Amino acid sequence: MTTTLRRHTIADVAKAAGVSKTAVSFAFNAPDRLGTETVNHIIDVATTLGYRPHPVASSLARRKTGTLAILTPQPLGEIFENPYHALFASGVATAAEAAGYALQFISPLKGSLARAVERASVDGIIAVGLDPAHPEVARIRRYGMRIVLVDAAASELAPSVSIDDEAGAHAAAAHLVALGHRDVLVLSVEPPAGSGGTPAAVAAERMLGYRRAFDEVGATISDDQVVDAPTTIQGGHEAFGGAWDDGQRPTAVLAMSDATAIGALHATREYGIEVPGDLSIVGFDDIDQASYTNPPLTTIHQPVRRKGEEAVRLLLQPTTDTGRPEHPRLDVRLVIRGSTGPVRRHDRRWPTVDR
Amino acid sequence: MTTTLRRHTIADVAKAAGVSKTAVSFAFNAPDRLGTETVNHIIDVATTLGYRPHPVASSLARRKTGTLAILTPQPLGEIFENPYHALFASGVATAAEAAGYALQFISPLKGSLARAVERASVDGIIAVGLDPAHPEVARIRRYGMRIVLVDAAASELAPSVSIDDEAGAHAAAAHLVALGHRDVLVLSVEPPAGSGGTPAAVAAERMLGYRRAFDEVGATISDDQVVDAPTTIQGGHEAFGGAWDDGQRPTAVLAMSDATAIGALHATREYGIEVPGDLSIVGFDDIDQASYTNPPLTTIHQPVRRKGEEAVRLLLQPTTDTGRPEHPRLDVRLVIRGSTGPVRRHDRRWPTVDR
DNA sequence: TTGTAAGCGTTATCAG
DNA sequence: CTGATAACGCTTACAA
pTM of the prediction? Predict the structure, then answer.
């Protein structure tokens, strides 16, 4: 029979050690304010009693939890399995650990982000892919928690950290254009769930960059050359396959994420398409996997881990009462690997698809 | 100038609504005990005031936090970037979300797991790869938190969920043996940091399984055919390369994780080794990436996501006062893909390594 | 159905 | 250097 014995409290320790509660508290949190003797004695008694300061009570009294959170509008299952998010979380976690903070995740609870936010005992929130105008942003601030936005448009409402999406996309497309490609398929990212189809800020920016590169040589990307896909390998696989089956015959693919790019790469095998001989592919993000594909993926590198660290810095830095929220923008760069090459001069005759 | 205005408390709402604190509390937590009228009124007042019940105060009074944690002895950065752990976390997260729990991560704080555990305000902990005899396990229980062990030996000290490592490993090795392989290189996993070289329970079990399969045909695996490697692609790459450079010429590789198997696979390209023509490789875990390699990886599938869900179930289930802690063991199975084949009859003459 | 009052376990203020 | 005592903000018997 397991007797659930009452946890020892600070009072128990105080009594057992023959001191006041205050002394015990000091022994743990401000040992310098006590005699070395007393401290040792108190700690001894505490450990033999198996006592630890109750973290919740402590948080209440201190008015801080020592925890910060990553908030995402998607369910956590999706987040952890997405290499981009994993990389980002890794950066956040490293910086949080270094600063002595615990890390928690917030995602919709029973479908409601609001409910999840309400119940969160954290000092600050790093929101990924949340629009500054989203009602939760205002609520979080009203609740007195700090917030930093990631992969969102810069705004007065909250600090944010992002990358130069337009420039990155432009570099990707310009690389293709320079290789002679004019006929491209864009694998965009799905608009966020509750947005009614409005593309995420990130997707919009990247589209701008792609278009600018084509404009510069008098070429264009028509709307039916742009298809949305879930940011997964499978999503990219199916999106590319769908476009190909519909009769599209691009000479290159511009994917807004490495995951979809890798998916497209796998799809090419099914169709007997050679990369980069028949088709060039360029991704975005430069996740670890990108250098392990066959051929290795040409992509836009962004410092994902550092993005996470930067977000923590912004969240934890003393309030910049200088006025405006900061909006650091990290650099990106084109990484040319094996999945891109010059466009074929003469059309290859593709096997007819039977549908 | 940002005036940090005091958060509204339950008392404010009570006063503004002209009711008692109790009524406000009920309006949020037990609306049935109040008149519909009153509830609506209170909620109205609360929302216009921007009030939410303070989660920490609430936790203190309720004596539960509504949060559970995944604990790992490794730094979080490593965890998130490891596909196996990511998959596991995904399972845990999904189950936790469904049960209305928030998810937090605990990892050594300033090098000390103990410190991190002390500060954790969670109701329960899922510890991955922690030995039942590890002092933290006892401490966690003494603190009154529940705990479930994952990838650890079964013991009286705590419930656990695991897989049949020995059987899985045996299946992997038997597959190779059946293909005629006798000369194998085992890529084991590094012993945990503070263990003084004692292999993790999981590694020991798997080694047993490998050996049994070889024993069955009168073959053996000598100690120098076993090398440790960090559980990463790079780790596998380097471990295989090191062994090859040392002059080992196995016809097959038994890797204790897909990550190291994939690393070995990449290394083969550098050496001009053909898989599976010259060398067979079999992994362990069956992470998503395993089906996307070239050739696709033969491996042991384990239900990683379900392992996470099962851990949550064990953690949250009403105390089974029937006596002993449960130790569910999930099934594994061999998945034959493209990285394994029959052993070559005649030795290929490997190019001499220049070192 | 609603209100009163006693915890929950710390920390922090302010005398001694 | 040490010790009462008042917060911290909510929940929950117990009463009314």
Answer: 0.93
